[in-house]
Write a structure and sequence with these properties.
By secondary structure, the chain is of the alpha/beta class. The protein has one domain (2-277): Ribonuclease Z/Hydroxyacylglutathione hydrolase-like (Metallo-beta-lactamase, Chain A), CATH 3.60.15. It has helices at residues 43-51, 68-71, 74-86, 120-126, 199-210, 229-240, 255-262; strands at residues 2-7, 24-29, 32-36, 60-62, 95-98, 106-107, 128-131, 142-144, 162-165, 168-171, 179-184, 187-192, 215-221, 246-250, 275-277. It has a seven-stranded mixed sheet with strand order 7-5-4-3-2-1-15. The N and C termini lie close together (5 Å).
């Protein structure tokens, strides 16, 4: 598997890649081409061009959850496919996989909309849509994790804004949050989007879904912003206990959390443009 961070909150030092408060990754595994999240703007498209990655030949688009910083770039990708069709350029029709609740409207305080901008009807005309609470296999070795079970007492279920259900707005505890797992001969690579469910809960879900206990690497957003010691310390202990080859934490993980994790774990540099091979 080859994975490229198309966009992150930071860019690699000395590089010419764009950064923004968002996350997007491009993954090639088992001959399949997967876009995991789309960031906030067209930055992921610009960086893909600079890396020589053709996003018109995707097999899958996988969304970690419905927040703006992971999905609003999808509008820009739709424009690319539209322009390709109009100009009769070669392009595919990717599948798009997400939790059903990822498509619901979301709001927070004075922000009237922070969820998906494209609804199910239009998405189904643009892509082969798969909405599932269960894991979905994207290739022989790569799978989504489905709805993540929350089992760690130090990663309690919390809410962020509200989501619009049939009966009105309810506190949003992010049931749509999911991640990916890639199975190698020597263990798992766990790929998180934002880990609203907790990064340790996410790793445990990957173990359950794949049946593989050994974890080689964990990467992505860990949602550790202003995390207190009661959250950060057991998280670091859990991840240290995995004996990882590397921990690539980014996006929604602040500097204090990275320093705390680095005291016990092999934290590596991450930024837009980084390519990893497993």
């Amino acid at each position: 598997m080859e994975l490229t961070f198309l966009v992150d909150n930071n860019a690699l030092v000395g590089s010419q890649f764009m950064a923004e408060a968002g996350l997007s990754m491009f993954i090639e595994a088992d001959g399949r081409r997967v876009l995991f999240d789309t960031g906030y703007s067209d930055a992921f498209l610009v960086n893909a061009g600079r890396k020589g990655i053709d996003l018109l030949r995707l097999d899958w688009i996988a969304l970690s959850h419905g927040h703006f910083d992971h999905t609003w770039g999808l509008d820009m990708l739709v424009r690319q496919y539209f322009q390709a069709a109009v100009n009769r350029r070669p392009h595919g029709r990717p599948g798009l996989v997400a939790h059903p609740k990822a498509l619901l409207s979301k709001r927070k305080a004075v922000v009237p909309e922070l969820g998906m901008l494209i609804g199910e009807d239009r998405l189904s005309r643009l892509f082969d849509l798969t909405l599932s609470r269960e894991p979905v296999r994207l290739s022989d070795s790569l799978t989504t994790l489905g709805e993540i079970e929350r089992v760690m007492d130090f990663e309690p279920r919390s809410t962020l804004g509200e989501r619009l259900e049939e009966d009105g707005y309810v506190p949003d505890d992010l049931p749509d949050d999911t991640a990916l797992a890639y199975v190698t001969d020597t263990g798992l690579v766990v790929i998180a989007g934002c880990a609203h469910s907790g990064i340790c809960n996410t790793v445990e879900q990957a173990r359950r879904v794949t049946g593989v206990d050994r974890v080689r690497a964990v990467l992505g957003g860990f949602h550790l912003q202003k995390a207190g010691p009661e959250r950060l310390a057991p998280t670091a202990d859990y991840l240290a206990g995995l004996d990882l080859e590397g921990l690539w934490c980014c996006h929604c993980t602040d500097l204090a959390a990275k320093i705390g994790l680095a005291a016990k774990c092999p934290v590596r540099e991450v930024g837009s443009g980084l390519t990893l091979t497993f």
